[in-house]
Specification:
By secondary structure, this protein is mostly helical. The protein is built from 3 helices and no strands. It has helices spanning 2-29, 48-72, 87-110. α2 (48-72) runs antiparallel to α3. It starts with a helix and ends in a 6-residue tail after the last helix. The mean pLDDT is 86.
Length: 116
């Protein structure tokens, strides 16, 4: 039974690694465009709210992946659920989205678009 689970985990890990490799390759070759990821329009400067959102989301995902990897490597070797993220990770994740959405709405109102 342990062998089947180990093979499943290895297969899942290889699939995630392959997916990450394909995405990285496509970003590097330009098939996935990232030119405007930090800008509202091509002419506008980089939005600090978008930059902080990207940084916080990547950090939160990396930390959660670390928690999952640590749980897999635990001496018990049995995982019955996903790891619970610490409260500060959830707060940082939600707060970052709140900052981004507030700034986005403020830009919309400043352009005369109004709240919707």
């Amino acid at each position: 039974m342990n062998t089947a689970i180990d093979l499943l985990l290895i297969g899942f890990g290889c699939a995630i690694l392959a997916l990450g490799t394909v995405i990285a390759y496509r970003v590097l070759t330009g098939r996935i465009r990232t030119a405007g990821i930090l800008k509202a329009t091509p002419e506008s400067p980089v939005n600090p709210d978008r930059a902080q959102l990207l940084i916080v989301v990547l950090a939160a995902v990396a930390y959660y992946a670390y928690l999952g990897a640590r749980a897999i490597g635990a001496p018990e070797g049995v995982i019955d659920s996903l790891p619970t993220p610490p409260g500060w990770v959830v707060t940082a994740f939600g707060g970052s989205h709140l900052i981004y959405l507030t700034a986005k709405q403020a830009r919309r109102i400043a352009r005369g678009g109004g709240a919707s």
